[in-house]
Design a protein that fits this description.
The structure is a single chain. The protein is elongated. It folds into 2 domains: 132 residues, no CATH class; 79 residues, no CATH class. The chain is 31% helix and 12% strand. The chain is of the alpha+beta class and 232 residues long. It is built from 7 helices and 4 strands. The chain starts with 5 loop residues before the first helix and ends in a 30-residue tail after the last helix. Helix 1 packs antiparallel against helix 2 and helix 1 runs parallel beside helix 3. The chain has a 4-stranded antiparallel β-sheet with strand order 1-2-3-4, with helices on one face. Bound molecules: zinc ion (2 copies). One zinc ion binds next to loops.
């Protein structure tokens, strides 16, 4: 699979679509593939989707959105007409995690910084409002100098660069964690977890380059290649 050229992958996907997708939705399916014809990462995802077709449902992928991302590993939502599925892409591997609303492995939750499945489900409630995923936005992004997450991602818990959502100060410096927990100091794991839940509920602040001590003012190199949708 990884040796295949993109043209070949597209051909394979279109073949899967012919066999797996309901006749009246095939044109729609192929249009989405065409929209991503230059994005090798999304093509791999579509290949995986149509190859195994979750639950053998005949619906095509309409959109791919990014729910979250950690250390460059995106957590993606794959939306069809009536369903949504979660995938993770790491290196060359496309991993099907399950249908939206299904419980995910603790490992996955922990990696993306969700205390439990409930919090993940909250993040998945408005998938259709999220932006389309494009792997081309990924390279060249700023990385947190301390905890190495990419721009737009949440810091590793405890990272001194993370900004406190209550006071806008440095979160490992301010007293908000004690104020929020109503205790003098944090002495056990349960309190850490409780604080993490409060923090997620409040809304953590993602890393942006302005937070970085060594923020360079160079113009960035995003080539606004959003691609207008063309109708025939
Ligand atoms: Zn950080
Ligand atoms: Zn604070």
């Amino acid at each position: 699979m990884r040796d295949k050229g993109m043209m070949e992958i597209i051909k394979d996907i279109e073949l899967f679509i012919q066999y797996g997708v309901a006749d009246d939705m095939q044109i729609q399916a192929v249009k989405v593939v065409e929209r991503y014809h230059q994005d090798a990462v999304v093509l791999r995802l579509l290949y995986e989707f149509y190859r195994s077709l979750p639950e053998a449902r005949e619906e095509p992928v309409l959109r791919v959105v990014q729910i979250d991302s950690h250390q460059g590993v995106p957590l993606l939502g794959v939306l069809t007409l009536s369903y949504a599925y979660l995938y993770l892409i790491t290196g060359d591997e496309v991993l099907f995690l399950g249908e939206k609303g299904q419980d995910l492995d603790d490992e996955v939750l922990e990696f993306f910084g969700y205390p439990d499945n409930e919090e993940l489900n909250k993040a998945c409630q408005q998938l259709s409002e999220l932006e389309d995923f494009s792997s081309h936005d990924q390279p060249g992004r700023m990385v947190c100098p301390v905890c190495s997450v990419f721009e737009g991602e949440y810091h590793q818990l405890g990272c001194p660069v993370e900004v406190c959502p209550w006071c806008d100060g440095q979160m490992n410096r301010c007293n908000c964690r004690f104020d929020q927990l109503g205790i003098e100091n944090i002495s056990d794991e349960d309190e850490v977890i409780r604080f993490q839940q409060l923090l997620v509920a409040k809304g953590r602040i993602r890393f942006v380059r302005e937070q970085s001590p060594a923020y360079p003012s160079a113009g960035d190199c995003l080539d606004g290649d959003e691609g207008g949708s063309d109708s025939r």
